[in-house]
Amino acid sequence: MENYLNHNFHAVKSKHSSDEALQKWRSLCHVVKNPKRRFRFTANLSKRNEAAAMRRTNQEKLRIAVLVSKAAFQFIQGKFLILHARIKFYFIILGDYQVPDDVKEAGFDICADEAASLVEAHDIKKLKFHGGVESLAEKLKTSTTNGLSIDDEGLAVRQKLFGINKFAESPQRSFWVFVWEALHDMTLMILAMCAFVSLVVGIATEGWPKGAHDGLGIVASILLVVFVTATSDYRQSLQFRDLDKEKKKISIQVTRSGYRQKLSIYELLPGDIVHLSIGDQVPADGLFISGFAVSIDESSLTGESEPVMVSVENPWLMSGTKVQDGSCKMLVTTVGMRTQWGKLMATLSEGGDDETPLQVKLNGVATVIGKIGLFFAIVTFAVLVQKLLARKLLMGTQWSWAADDALELLEYFAIAVTIVVVAVPEGLPLAVTLSLAFAMKKMMNDKALVRHLAACETMGSATTICSDKTGTLTTNKMTVVKSCMCLSVKDVNKQGNSNSGIPDNALKILLQSIFSNTGGEVVNNKEGKREILGTPTEAAILEFGLSLGGDFQAERQASTVLRVEPFNSSKKRMGVVLKLPEGGVRAHCKGASEIILAACDKVINADGEVVDLKEGSLNHLKTTIDQFAGEALRTLCLAYIDLDKNVSAETPIPSSGYTCIGIVGIKDPVRPGVKESVAVCRSAGIMVRMVTGDNINTAKAIAKECGILRDDGIAIEGPDFREKSLEELDELVPKIQVMARSSPLDKHRLVKHLRTTFGEVVAVTGDGTNDAPALHEADIGLAMGIAGTEVAKESADVIILDDNFSTIVTVAKWGRSVYVNIQKFVQFQLTVNIVALMVNFTSACLTGNTPLTAVQLLWVNMIMDTLGALALATEPPNDALMKRIPVGRQGNFISKVMWRNIFGQSLYQFIVIWLLQTKGKSFYGLSGHNSDLILNTLIFNSFVFCQLFNEVNSREMEKLNVLNGILQNNVFVSVLSATAVFQIIIIEFLGTFASTSPLTMKQWYYSILTGFLSMPIAVILKMIPV
């Protein structure tokens, strides 16, 4: 079976499967009882293709509009004089625009539709008519400096007039929709027809109510199966709905009432002032106010891969696009369904997520077993009919057919159909979804948000984790603890006066560098307390600057910013060009110590004088960098260069000729529990590698502290890694435990080599925009929830909400739990399938009847399908899971251990039932007219209790102790208890409908004992090596 599955159902990957692969396995699933239910959690390829075609059409329309806008803008620049008259004429036409009365009454001078059309059409003439961005802000009753200043009543009025920033969603499907879908099961529909015929014939021949018992019994069983199935499916849909809401929670920096604060994108309103930076997704349509070097990726809207530069001249910012570089302030003009992104989303009917490899594989298992079951059902029906015909031939009544004969034929047909119901394990693929939904919900509590179903199961097979250092292995709470200013090394924490020993002129340049060349801000919050905004690194340096007696606002106002080059993980530096109060122009640069130091040819000495950077001073600084890095400190170098006064904002910041101001050493402590988590990964066969942009000595020190770098591993720098040939990489990659000074492309290359050359299942962490390719390439992309950009999160499969490495280990544990739980369920269900098929088939062949009726088989089907999945697929993980080696890429899903347990238990159950059929009457001393009914009841009861105890056995496939932790799993205990209670009710009180007879205490004792004996049998089986 494994070979068949690998050949036909192995093409679907955890990510980026082709449409051909997705279509192939669907075409192989011939025996499907209920396509609506079976394929509910698989991608709807036809809808997806329709959506893709519609998206392309919309993108093309928008692309043309943008290109026309650009052409018009160029024409405006080139033909200004001619256009001047035209603009006047255009203003006369636009002068007809009337502000609606309700908008005017609320105090606004522009309505929602007018504001929306402004950005949608990229209409520069209309923007000029409205007076530009500042004037438009006034019309929206806002300030480009302080943002909205409104109370709850004002918010409500604004929401009513301009709408809310939410997109239309498909309504939640009601419980009755799931009931309706469960009724679409073909075999249940056939059984319902059989029940109807049985009712008609039974009432006609035996009268009411006796003649209706068999038919009503089948109807009741069908309804029970339908409602239990629908309830389970409905609960799953609610879980996925909750998880979808979590995925869409995005916060953005906004200025309101003069204070910078974080808001959910769903709270944004026209008039809000939004702060955007690299990696952010533009949350609404709006206009550029101010910023530097802003490039926007509009491919999601227009399909164009070339980034668009946004500036005062080209101020259009559209919802759903992404900030590729730079930072800016934006005025929100349009929200929700009025935005381009909202309109695009409204026209699309998404086809859902790709199915997971495990879902596909289990669809294959269900198909194979379904075909076998269908064959046995047909043969069983043929044998039963042949026995009936043979009996009538012996009696000479072959030409005389009564209603009883018709009912008997109908019963045989119902039994054959019910065998198909039991044999086709429709619940197998859905058990994966149930287990994944359960795991995803629990992982949310453990600070991990799973964005794609497949990632949950793939993480269980992970063999390598490539982790960032900052914020993942460390706390991301940074402080400057050492500095080397003017060639003098000082301990920042211990010195009484922070600026002691730094000459005044050097201190002035240092503070200018710290407060001007930063992506952070120092602000006063609502309580009037000082607050530092920005990344932990920026916050640490700003705090250092404040401790030196600096004034952030005064320093920022003292000079004018001409150009900004934000930090980039490829360049590993950031820069700013300032126009100084005295008239000069100066560029400040900050970044990776050795890179910035290499760009310096001067240094400020102990007297505050600028001198040439001679070899002795250079060696002193390099030694200081190595010393700081050896103490696990993150080092940054600050430098400046005075430029020509005629430098323009378009002139790139120089790459050399700088004067070194100094070096800071930033402490970022290792997270508690990381060392233990790395040890857990090692014992689980998962290799942890650190991939960081930091100095190699800092990386090595942290890696040793975490237990990542060991004697058998090597640490390498990105530039060295890049120069290696493929042959050298084949030898080098398995030994790499630390990669320092790596670029995003280095990370991507490492991941690709691990996956393709060595067949590793790779999990990768990332937080920056440039990490997106590596996250996309990896089997499991893990984005950081706190430090991660929206671009990184969108490319990831799992978001680590607390940025903690220990959470990654928890995700791996849950992934393994999902995989093992599905294996347990498959083992349990295949055992029931085999026994039910063999019992009914052999009984039909040898005795001419079957011991298990249609109603009884439907109950067994519910035990093994919906209830079995609930019990076994929701087992929580245990620590023992992380002491096994990972399954990896080539592991067999149905293992030899599973086949041993399946065949062993099947053989025991088959022998027990066969002995009951042949020797049961003499063993129990049964006689009289109802002895056959009692015996069949005993067979049914023993069979059900065998399944109950085998369900307990299935909790562990190899361990002898299957009761460990059973009471902690409330779902398992509840399912087991409910099944036992319902079994008692069926036997003792529903005999008329279920064809059972009440049993004595002795008979109950032996039935339960028969089931219980499967537990010592399981112990014996587990001792057999495979």
Automatic annotation (TrEMBL):
Matching InterPro entries: ATPase_P-typ_cation-transptr_C (IPR006068), ATPase_P-typ_cation-transptr_N (IPR004014), ATPase_P-typ_cyto_dom_N (IPR023299), ATPase_P-typ_P_site (IPR018303), ATPase_P-typ_TM_dom_sf (IPR023298), ATPase_P-typ_transduc_dom_A_sf (IPR008250), ATPase_P-type_domA (IPR059000), Ca_ATPase_N_dom (IPR024750)
Compartment(s): Membrane
GO molecular function, one term: ATP hydrolysis activity
Cellular-component GO terms for this entry: plasma membrane
Pfam families (alphabetical): CaATP_NAI (PF12515), Cation_ATPase (PF13246), Cation_ATPase_C (PF00689), Cation_ATPase_N (PF00690), E1-E2_ATPase (PF00122)
PANTHER family: CALCIUM-TRANSPORTING ATPASE 2, PLASMA MEMBRANE-TYPE (PTHR24093:SF474), CATION TRANSPORTING ATPASE (PTHR24093)
Role noted for this protein: Catalyzes the hydrolysis of ATP coupled with the transport of calcium.
Name of this chain's protein: Calcium-transporting ATPase
Species of origin: Deinandra increscens subsp. villosa
